[in-house]
Design a protein that fits this description.
The chain is an alpha+beta fold and 209 residues long. The chain folds into three domains: 63 residues, OB fold (Dihydrolipoamide Acetyltransferase, E2P); 73 residues, Orthogonal Bundle (DNA polymerase, domain 1), CATH 1.10.150; 63 residues, no CATH class. It has nine helices and five strands, in the order βββαββαααααααα. It has a five-stranded mixed β-barrel. A hairpin with a 4-residue loop joins strand 4 and strand 5.
């Protein structure tokens, strides 16, 4: 129903009886968006863009939001495990970054995962068992969000996925691949072909080495 809210930050709160949340004003309507401590600490004043997930219970509806689409997607994936709801998923994402969480899944380190508040050893093992393949596959195929690219030209999402897959196969991390592609598409306005995006992405990454 909702993908993101773009508006003005009206207020934010880390500790309240509602938990951590922000209020985003969009067209004179204030949307209360539940979130985690990390998001509240990072969210800037002024105009903001928050990716949201709608939770629908029998007697209520609520929005949970994040500063990146990737965090929102991981939040939704975590809730696919039975017994993991909004509160526990937020606690896990407050404890671990996306890259840390995926690394934990790859290593099957349930002891590390159980550091998150509310996650015992059995729950951690269950999360890893049910989500390891799903999270690794998500990390490898989730493309750059074209909405974050500051260009008016039409972008072929298949090209982005292809370039991202090649960069990952060459040993670059998911975040390195995505950052390189964003950099190229934002500043190489005439770059539209797959081979060109790959070429300039590799050039960008080589400068960081």
């Amino acid at each position: 129903m909702y993908d993101y809210l773009k508006g003005t930050l009206a207020s934010k709160q880390i500790n309240s009886y509602r938990g951590a949340y922000v209020v985003i004003e969009v067209n004179n309507i204030g949307y209360l968006v539940h979130t985690g401590r990390r998001t509240v600490e990072k969210i800037p004043d002024g105009e903001v863009k928050v990716y949201v997930s709608l939770s629908h219970k029998e007697d209520s509806m609520s929005l949970t939001g994040f500063l990146t689409k990737e965090e929102r997607d991981i939040f939704n994936i975590l809730q696919s495990v039975s017994g993991i709801g909004v509160k526990l998923a937020l606690l896990i994402l407050d404890e671990f970054s996306i890259s840390e969480l995926i690394d934990i899944m790859i290593r099957e380190d349930f002891k590390e995962l159980s550091r998150a508040k509310g996650v015992g050893a059995k729950v951690a093992q269950k999360i890893i068992l049910e989500l390891k393949d799903k999270l690794i596959n998500w990390a490898n195929v989730t493309p750059v969000d074209v909405a974050d690219i500051e260009t008016s030209k039409e972008i072929n999402s298949d090209s982005i996925v292809e370039v991202q897959s090649v960069l990952i196969s060459l040993g670059y991390s998911v975040n390195e691949a995505k950052n390189a592609i964003k950099e190229v598409l934002n500043y190489k306005k005439d770059c539209t072909k797959t081979e060109d995006i790959l070429k300039y992405s590799l050039e960008y990454l080589s400068k960081l080495a």
